[in-house]
Amino acid sequence: MVSGHSDTLKMPKAIKLLIAGGFGVGKTTMVGAVSEIRPLRTEETLTNLSVGVDDLSGVEAKATTTVAMDFGRISIGQDFVLYLFGTPGQERFWFVWDELARGALGAVVLADTRRLADCFPSVDYFERRGTPFVVAVNCFEGAPVFELDEVKLALNLGQDVPILLCDARRRESGKEVLIALVKHAYGRRPTAAAH
Amino acid sequence: MNPEWSPDEERLLDAPTIRPYVIARGRTEAQDRFDLISLAVTIRPTTGAEIGLDPEHQAIVRLCRRALSVAEIAAHLDLPAGIVRVLLGDLFDRGFVAVQQPQPEMDVLDERMYKAVLDGLRAL
């Protein structure tokens, strides 16, 4: 849909992908490795509607918070443009993801085996929301090496959730992760599940 | 001298904080109108003589000669995304830019899209 004063205007379709995971796990590094532009930073004011949801008084507190996100762009021919957003790393910002996740094709959860628990909130969130995601284990030097099955078990991932090793600094590796994500999202699309 | 005035109050008017909201004249209602990845493109250049267009509006019109997302415009102009949405709303209403909303989640199902994106990523 082009909402404008010229319906004949040819514009690409924008697609949003999220790169999530704990603080310092390499989200911006991965964005930078695959993006065709130097990662940019934008500030977004987001609404926290979730405060007090469990409160029986029914009073819903509404607060806003400003978060900075790094993002990059990959043009796919003339027709599509992918935007990769690194989600804010601090766990206390989990509530912002809803606005970020809306309309997203899928998400990459970056994991660091030295601090595996840091990615639990991301995994929980995307599972609950039904957003297709893959887990990419960023191979830091000196990090303990686990079998992917072990990591999968530790994260209690569903059988169908792809998990792969990556090097967030390498373009080729980031590409593989994104391809795995798009493939997975394709298999998970509602029309596919209905058949 | 105004006896109500206190020097402390002035500190609240921190220029970098206030300025974006002055540009948007305090409006925030456009927040829900455009997504971070809504793409904007200029369809009519400004002459510089338009009434009610600020330098920031003009800058957006210049930037969007090629389609850019709200997030990109915000980053290039160093403005919060919320302010860019308001300014973009003004420009849209006055016919300077066209804005393409991203696909709603339900529509992100097009098989051709997945294939094109996969092929595109493989070819990177």
Automatic annotation (TrEMBL), chain A:
One of its GO terms (molecular function) is GTP binding. SUPFAM superfamilies: P-loop containing nucleoside triphosphate hydrolases. It comes from the Bacteria. Gene3D superfamilies: P-loop containing nucleotide triphosphate hydrolases (3.40.50.300). The keyword Hydrolase applies. The keyword DNA repair does not apply. Pfam families: ATP_bind_1. Keywords: GTP-binding, Hydrolase, Nucleotide-binding. InterPro entries: Gliding_Motility_GTPase (IPR052705), Gpn (IPR004130), P-loop_NTPase (IPR027417). Belongs to the GPN-loop GTPase family. This is ATP/GTP-binding protein. It comes from Microbispora cellulosiformans.
From TrEMBL, chain B:
It comes from the Bacteria. InterPro entries: DUF742. This is DUF742 domain-containing protein. Pfam families: DUF742 (PF05331).
